[in-house]
Prior knowledge:
heterodimer; A: 8-stranded antiparallel β-sheet; B: 24 helices; globular
Amino acid sequence: MLSERLQLKLYLEPSAHFELEALIPVFHRFIRDQVIKDLLIDVVDYSHVPAGPGVVLIGHAADFYVGALDGAYGLIYSRKRGGPGPDARLEDALRRLINVARLLEQEHGLGWRFKSNELSLRLTDRLHAPNDEATFAATQAEVEALFGRVYGSDIAVERVPAAKEPLSLRIKASSSPSLEALLEKLGGPPEAAS
Amino acid sequence: MTVATTWKQKLAGQVREDWAREIDIFETQIELRKKGKVEEKLFAETRLRRGTYGQRYDNGQRHDGEKTQTLPYPSGELTKGPVTMWDAPGMQRIKIPYGKLTAEQLDTLSELAEEYSDQILHITTRQDIQLHFIHIEDTPDLMRRLAAAGITTREACGNTVRNVTACPYAGVCSTESFDVIPYADALTFFLLGHPDTQDFGRKFKIAFSGCKDEPCGLTNFHDAGAIARTRTVNGEVKRGFEYYVGGGLGAVPYPATLFDEFLPEEELFPITQAVCRVFARLGERDNRARARLKFVVKKLGIEEFKRLVLEERAKLRPDERWTSFLKDLHVTDEKPLKPGSELGSGSYPEGFEAWRKTNVHPQSQKGYSTAKVTLPLGDFTPSQGRAMAELARRFTGDSMRATVEQNMLFRWVSNADLPAFYQELKKVGLGAAGADHITDVTSCPGTDTCKLGISSSRGLATELHKQLSVISDQLDPAAQELHIKCSGCSNSCGQHHVADMGFLGVSRNMNGRRVPHFQLVIGGQYKNNAGSYGLAIGAIPSKHVPKAVKTLTDRFVAEKQDGESFQAFVARIGKKEIRKLVDQLAVIPSYEQDPSYYSDWGDPREYTIGDLGVGECAGEVVPLVQVGLADSERELFEAQLLLDEGSSDSAAARAFSAMVLAAQALTREKNSFLGEGVDEIVSEFRTHYYDTKLFFDPFAGGKFAHYFFRAYEHRGEAGGSKEGAHQLIEEAQLFVEAAHQCYTRIAGALP
Lengths: 194, 751
């Protein structure tokens, strides 16, 4: 993946209402207790913005969003800088995303479940990953290879048509493994992001 | 074909040569700083002049509610300014002159928020756009991409001429004398990088308004404010400006002073240039707290200041740019995309009527309206930004304005298009009604991201919005039109002084813990270009502020007389009545009963971790110093009442007395034998708190102590003006606040 910046999203199972406010103390605790190994900096509440990023856990190398930026609630892992080389970026992002999704599912106060087989990928780097056919083709191949291996099933990849948006892909696996199983396939909880 | 691997390559030839060069230089300075070849203070001023700010926690320390933790940034000890870690995310301020945005510019800004920031674009109270959580090393590319869209961040911060603001209705407003935009536009670029604006001791803000009575330009609190005026001379209509200088909010707000009731249009630029030269020459350098132009004007008096400016004006070498723009004042005119029309009858989309009532206003041009997009706290997403850009292309032909109320204004909407326009807004979550009404609470960033924030102004604003939205439909129209503004600290970025109800973040020690509070500021006037400033009535625990708003609003609705404004209502019932409410709300449950009072809005971390040795009875024991500080606040309130009664000298004396009481309370912590004599109190305070720097604010240094010393030097001087007494009360307020903070620090309760 040429793009250093990327956003990988896992969708939440529909629920009557998501109390995003309930997430704020959880994210603060993630920072305080260093629940994940990344350098985490702050929590920002954008839940007042309709179809916005929601509640954001700001990190140095990457952020985590729980909101409805594309209209549906889910968790986004947003890599901003650094990280592994091009060949390992997508897998690294998936591992970190699944890890935090799993931790959020374990927060009983939230009562959230993620749809493990539905994801989206956005390449937020218009210089290295323009929203064009060539980038899509290359990304599609990479996504199919990685997700096919991790999910052990067929993977459908669809390009989201929106000219001015960053290149966006919807990814659907035909199987729905548990987040724990996916994380195990990916090598377990990740080390600190570089 | 060569594939561009950098934005510099990709945008080659698309950026103005001088802007491209400036950004290249900035990028080089970043590299030099990384190698330690540029001194950190110099680098800090360099980046600030390009709008690249620090943010909260950029000292590498963060309090997690229990303890302070170090943030182990990978670049280690490398800094981008004094105590500002290199890797700490920062804020990029982007100047948008008079708030005007094209669709292309908004597309670009949206891309930048998406790629470098946290998916949010934020409109400020001065028509800028801010992006948060930006890494310093991303800023050159960010600036290049902006520059390719015709936007420079040069002089967005630092001791420079800041964004030139103007009424967003200019050119389409029925109350304006003429369209001020060509003047604001030309002055922006005349002063940008001008040699006479590069050596200020502090920032310099300019605002334009098309008329005097409305609030849109807010010229009264700007360093230079220009209100459009016309005058008929020998049958010919001449254009000019009612020109004001020396206004400003900040810790102590000063109303602007009239410099010239009719400054001819040809003289606007040279006089402003001369004002800049006088400011550069005479403005304070050592004490930042007294470095704004308002202090120069105050110190010299307007007549002497004017004499110096005119003297400077006479020395200026003529510059063709002073008047060249006057040859074509239509250069900034906007051409509507569609012909004007009438709004058709029939069925409208759900919610349209409510939105139209609050967010749509007829233009002076028949058949057109302005339509305001309500943006909660001034925030919107990149997708919403692109959607608004498309709306501009489809309906208005590129006209948008970021407003000081943190909304987006569209102009030239043909009336028949209003339902379709609204429908499109709704699709992207932007169809909320209530723009510039009571639910549309303005706020600065506060503790969310600002290094100076004391209380969570955005958290409070969000909560007020939430609670008021539920009842807004049932509110009396007079209540719906109230303005609420919140600032996280005394620097007034939320412009709380000019709201009907303003809130200013402070903290208090209660029950042995630190508790977030907001001072209630009442009596400000938004109309007449922010015609007058309110004063603080008293501090309310943050969690009680919504109750205060509801109680005040209900009482206003129940007791207002015909056509009475909120400001007039407050003046009629008296501040004593309001103070009673504040006093009722001052009491909070103990921590054990309800710990939520000890956290701020939207932030569950405990506001304090200070262990003050709270024993079984500690919650009931009030230390003597707190009694003294409470006395000083009461004295301050009495000063306000005297001011309202027109007794300026007595008010000033009482304000000074409040300072003395606060100083005495603090100083008795160090010298229990301290007497009642003012000379002794001042002397001992100086010894124990000023000379030792114990009283110094982490950011403002000894500023607030200077207020006290100056008041002491001038005590007893009779014949002071109402404005002078007003300022002294403001200064006393800040001194007392600083005394509270100082006590908290020495008591060990501050994290």
